[in-house]
Amino acid sequence: MPSTSALESVSERQTRLRPTLDQVYLVAALMLIALRPLLTPIPPHDFWWHMATGRVILESGTIPQVDLFSYTRAGEPFFNQGWLAQLLMALLHQIGGLPLIIVVQALVLTLAYGLLLRLCILRTNRVRMGAAILLLATLPLSFDNWTVRPQTYVFPLFAGFLTVLTEYRLGMTRRLWLLPILMALWVNMHGSFVLGFALIGIVFIGEAIRRWREQGVLGKTLDPSLVVWGAATALATLLNPRVAEVLGYVTNLLGSSQVTDLVTEWSPPTIRDINGAIFFLFVIVTALVMIYARSRPDLTDLLLFGAFLWLALGATRNIVWLGFVATPLLATQAATLLPPPSPRRFQGVPTMNAALIGLLAILLLIGSPWIKPALLPPDVGALLAKGTPVEATQALQALPQRPQRLFHAMSYGSYLIWAAPEQKVFIDPRIELYPYDQWRDYILLGQGADVEALLAKYAIDGMMLSIEEQQPLLEYARARPDQWREVYADDETVVLVTRNVQR
C-alpha cells in the first residue's frame, strides 16, 4: 500500500499537469514578455560601442578611461560607468554570439517584469487582472526602452529595490539587507543607480508620515532599520573603480547640453508621436482609476507616482521607470472596482489550459534566435535591425587604402567601433564625449550646409552616409565626381572616398 507522502507526490504531479486558468494567465504573461525581445532585432546605435568596450575590458583586463575609438577625440578622458554590463555583454558574445545575447536580454526583461507582476499579485491577490494590466498597459509604455544596452540590465535591480521596499512596507519580510548588494551591482552598470536612492527616500518619507498619522509622535515613527540599510546602500555606491567620482559623472551627464539638447530620449514626451501618446494615455487611465476607486491610494504609492511622473514629463527615457512604480498602484486601485475574487471562479478546462501553454512554448521556440532566421521572413527573423551597415563596413575594409578621416552617420560609428576597430570614427552615440560644436558640425554637414568649410575643417577623406538621414550631403558628393568616388552603395548606405584615396 503506497505511503501518504507518495500519494501526495502523485497528487502534486497531477496538479502540475492540470494547469488552472490563473496559471495560464501567469505563464502567458511571462512568455509574452520574453517573446518581444526575442523577435526584436538589435538596433545599431548604443549596442555596438558597448560591446567593443566590453571586448577591450575582456582582452586588456582594464577599464579604459580615455577615448580609444575616434580620431576627433582620441585620448580624451571618458568616464565609462557601465563597464560591468559591457563586460557581461562581451562575455556572452564570446560564449554564444548574438543569439545568446538576445536570449539573455529576454530573460533579463522577463525577470524584471515578472517581479513587477509578482508585486501586483501580492498587493491584490488577482493574477488575471495583474497580468492584464502588465500586458495591456505597462509593456506598451515600456517597449521603447527595451533595446539591448546596459540600461535594460538594471531593470531587475530597480524591480528588486521596489520588491524589497514594498515587502518592507507591508510588514511581510525584512530583506532590506539586499539593497546594498543590489546597489553594488547597479552602480557599476548604469547611471540610473541614483533612482535607488529616490526609492528609499520616498518610501522613508511616506512611511514616516503614515506612522505619524497613526501614532501622532514623529520621533517614534522613524524606523531605524531603513535608515541603517539606506546608509549602507549609499556606501555601496563607492564600490566602483572610480569611487565617489561616479556621482560627479551623473551630475555632469545631466548637465551636458549635447545630451539634453540633442538626444531625443532626453526630450519631454509629446503626444505627436506614438510613444508619447501611449504615455499620456497611461497617465490619464491611472488618474481615472484612482479617482473612481473605492478607496484612497496609499500615500507612499502616490509619492512614488508623483516623483516618477515628474521625471517622465521631463525626459522620455524616464517613462520606463514610471511604468515600474505606477503599475502596482494602478493594479491596487483597479482591484477596488471589481467584485471580490471567488474561491470557486472558473479555472478553464485543464487540457485546453495545457494546450495554450504548449502553444506559447512553441512560439517561444520559433522566436528563438537560433531558429527564427530560418523560419520567419527576413524583416522579422533578422538578428540585426535594418540600418546596421554590415556590408558597407566590409566593403570599406576591403579597400586597399582606407580613408583615415571618415565621416559617417552616428549609428554607423557605433558599428564601426565594433566591426572595424582599426577605422577610427568621426562621432558615435557616446554623446557626452563629443563637444556641442562638433555635434552642430555633424548635423550641418549631414544636411549639406557649409560642406566645403566643414570637410576642410576635419580633413575628411571618406564618407559612409545614410541615404535616409544624410541625403543632402550624398547629393553634394555625387554632383562632384571629380572629387568623390563611390565605392559601395545599397538601399541604405553609400560609401565614398576622395579621388586621392587609391582604389
TrEMBL record:
Signal peptide range: none
Keywords associated with the record: Membrane, Transmembrane, Transmembrane helix
Protein name: Glycosyltransferase RgtA/B/C/D-like domain-containing protein
Record's keyword annotation contains Ribosomal protein: no
UniProt KW Transmembrane helix keyword: yes
Origin organism lineage: Bacteria, Bacillati, Chloroflexota, Chloroflexia, Chloroflexales
Ranges annotated as spanning the membrane: 21-39, 97-117, 153-170, 177-205, 274-293, 302-326, 346-366
